[in-house]
Every structure is written in structure tokens, then in C-alpha cells.
Amino acid sequence: MIQGKKRHEGKRNIRLDGIMGVIVGDALGCPVQFTERENLMKRGLVKGMEGHGTYDMPPGTWTDDGSLTLATLDSIRTLNTVDPDDIMTRFVGWYEEGEYTPFGEAFDIGNTCAKAIWCYEHGADIHTCGGTSERSNGNGSLMRIMPVCLYAYEKKLSENEAVKIVHEISGLTHNHLRSKMACGFYFFCICAVLNGKGSLKERLQQGMDNGFAYYEKDSCYKEELSLFTRLKFLTLFAELQASDIKSTGYVVDLLEAALWSLLNTESFEQCLLKAVNLGDDSDTIGAIAGGVAGLFYGYDNIPGQWLQVIKRREWIEEMCCK
């Protein structure tokens, strides 16, 4: 294991920080996925890494969120570029052969992702395989976009170049503009967390400011942009009660839930527990919040007892370090 050795002579490994944040958040929420908040409170809130539950899996098991994130990461690190066809081919390997999974079998497959992969397998190209309907705005692109965001950040791409790539890779499965913009806002938040100074709240506000400034420049985004307005002023948004935060699989709800969890906590552990205890789409909220929390707090501040049970942990960490 490489805990405590990630900085490689003082140089930060943001892939390890962010990707392990995604994986740990996903695994933490996996056992209570689809458990409604009221029922979760009745059975007892998540206090640490659990097993069994929804999919009857052992502790430390990640779901499709982690698998598709790892497939994307493996493509980017292998080719040193973002190749949509290669990424989609790896998604097929996950879906059909169980690649990038804890135990060699894919599970927890969303309908939009499954349909997009089927279409790609049957001849649709990367520009047409992803869903474009109103109902195609689930969690399946936002949950896996972290490696693309980190690539754009590390390569110092311009805003236009970065957003184009983020939108394109979102569109492999979720090709509606709303899903693409949610991924874009996530990218701007990641950059602000990595570049910024000050508190996490200040950095996230800078990220949202940059995101709104970018999307407000083009009228084609105007209608969809109105759906993200609760996130424009994060100080006010953070004051909302949990009852005001939805935790469904809808992409806007997920982005809001993840950011609310980040804004109202002061450590990686606190953030992830708040996120997954919102219930419902708990694994994805954990994954999205966990990625940003990992980047801000660092790998060394992920609870050791959580890391110890992550399935195939050494393989994941080696992938992050190559």
C-alpha cells in the first residue's frame, strides 16, 4: 500500500486524491443505495464502511460509478490523451466482460448508460450513441467525469478546449445539454479547488462564478442555465436544510447534493458521511462529493479504515500513480 507516500518527493498526485475520493465515496454509499432518507434514518445512519445492503456486497465494493471512472482513467493514462472511441470501447468491456469491476462482473447499470453502450456496439458513433431526451439527465456522466477534468487541468487547456472535451465525454452516454453543463460546472469547481486559495467554500464559489461566467457568454445555454441558479450564491445555498436537498438520480439534484455536503462539513470523513446519508442515490452523491473532497483534503486525510477495505485498492492506486 502507498498511503503516506503519494507526494513523490513533495509533488502532489491529484489523480490519487481525486480518484480515490470517488471510489471511497462510491463504496461508502453502495450498501444504502436506493434507501429513502426516512428509511435510512430509521435503520440507522451510515457511520463507516459497511457491507451487504442493497447489492449484498462486502465492505469496500464500488459500483458502476467507480468502474466507469476507472475505465476513463485507464484510457487517458494509457494514451495520454482523451480518445472518445477508446473510452467507449472500455465501457463496452466493463458492460460485457466485467472489466474495471471489483469481482469481474458489472452490476448497478443505469438504463441510459446501458442503452448508449448497446447503441455503440451496434454501430452508432460516439456522437449519436448517448441519450438526448429530457429523461437522459441521470447521473451516468457526472459520476465518471473526474479523470477528464483532471486531464484538462493538468494539460492547462483553455476554457473552450476543456469544456468541449468534458461535454464530449459526457455525451458518450448522456448527450443532453443539461448533463453536459453539470459536468462543466464540476470541472470549473475542480479547477478552483486545485488553483484557489482560502476555504473550500470560497474555492467552490470561485468555481461556480467561473462556470456561470462561461455559460452566460452564449445564449444557447440560457434555458438550461436557469436550472442551476440555486448554485449561483453558495453562501445562501449552504444554509438550506437537508429537507431542501433532493438526492434522486437527476443530475442537477446530484450536483446540488454533493456541493451542499461539501459546503457544510470540515473534513473528508464528515463530508462523505453527510453525502451518503442523504439516501436514495447515495453511492453517486458520495462519489461526486468524494472526488472534490479528495482533491481539497488530500488522500492522506481519507480515513485509513475506509481505505483498508477498498476492493482491488493496490491496483487502483497503481493506476493513479502511473
Summarize the topology.
Blueprint: H1 14-29, H2 37-43, H3 64-79, H4 84-97, H5 111-121, H6 146-154, H7 159-170, H8 177-195, H9 200-215, H10 222-225, H11 234-238, H12 251-263, H13 268-276, H14 282-297, H15 304-307, H16 313-321
Q: Round the Cα radius of gyration to an integer and report it.
A: 18 Å
Largest sheet: none
- Characterize the overall form: globular
Number of helices: 16
- Report the structural category: mainly alpha
Taken as a percent bin, the fraction of beta residues is under 5%
Mean pLDDT: 95
**N-to-C SSE string, H for helix and E for strand:** HHHHHHHHHHHHHHHH
What portion of residues is helical? Answer: 55-70%
The rounded distance between the terminal residues' Cα atoms is: 15 Å
Low-confidence residue ranges: 1-9
Instruction: Give the total of beta strands.
Output: 0
Question: Can you describe this structure?
Answer:
The chain is mostly helical and 322 residues long. Helix content is 56%, strand content 0%. The chain has helices at residues 14-29, 37-43, 64-79, 84-97, 111-121, 146-154, 159-170, 177-195, 200-215, 222-225, 234-238, 251-263, 268-276, 282-297, 304-307, 313-321. Helix 6 crosses helix 8 (177-195). The longest helix has 19 residues, at 177-195. The protein is globular and about 45 Å long.
What's this entry about, in short?
The chain is mainly alpha-helical and 322 residues long. It is built from 16 helices and no strands.
Features:
322 residues; 56% helix; mainly alpha; 0% strand
